């Protein structure tokens, strides 16, 4: 597996597509890709994808805010999102729920720098822990 293939795999896996960047990462390591190359390729692909997710959520804000705030439950969800948004990002590295959380972060317009630092560093740490296991 090449660095580009790992990058693309990690990028696509961080969207809503049901792919596993972890499997591709481990496969790359097992095929003797240097750890630094694998970390850089997978992390950069994953981080760029969560930035895309954030941007999509950010630009959907105007279309969804009015509808969301038109109901009591929607208003409550919106308020909870603002109150616990950064805490919820601590789960953004998890499969299935993590990638939608990065889209919601943009929808809630959480501060971009904090979003990237928190969600991005968790993505890098996930790959680091995989290097320790495999």
What would your notes on this structure say?
The chain has helices spanning 3-13, 21-30, 35-69, 72-88, 98-107, 112-133. With 134 residues, the chain is mainly α. It has one domain (3-133). The chain is elongated. The mean pLDDT is 94.
Element layout with pairings:
Layout: H1 3-13, H2 21-30, H3 35-69, H4 72-88, H5 98-107, H6 112-133
Helix pairs in contact: 1-2, 1-3, 2-3, 3-5, 3-6
Helix content: over 70%
Structural class by helix and strand composition: mainly alpha
Largest sheet: none
How do the SSEs run, as a string of H and E? HHHHHH
Concise account of the structure shown:
This protein has helices spanning 3-13, 21-30, 35-69, 72-88, 98-107, 112-133. The protein is mainly alpha-helical.
Key phrases:
mainly alpha, elongated, 134 residues
């Amino acid at each position: 597996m090449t660095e580009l293939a790992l990058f693309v795999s990690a990028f696509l896996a961080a969207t809503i597509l049901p792919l596993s960047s972890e499997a591709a990462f481990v496969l790359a390591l097992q095929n003797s890709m240097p750890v630094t190359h694998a970390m850089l390729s997978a992390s950069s692909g994953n981080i760029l994808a969560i930035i895309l997710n954030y941007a999509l959520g950010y630009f959907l804000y105007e279309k969804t805010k009015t509808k969301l705030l038109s109901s009591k439950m929607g208003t409550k969800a919106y308020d909870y999102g603002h109150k616990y948004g950064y805490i919820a990002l601590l789960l953004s590295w998890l499969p299935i729920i993590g990638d939608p959380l990065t889209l919601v972060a943009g929808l809630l317009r959480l501060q971009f720098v904090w979003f990237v630092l928190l969600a991005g560093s968790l993505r890098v740490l996930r790959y680091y822990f995989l290097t320790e296991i495999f």
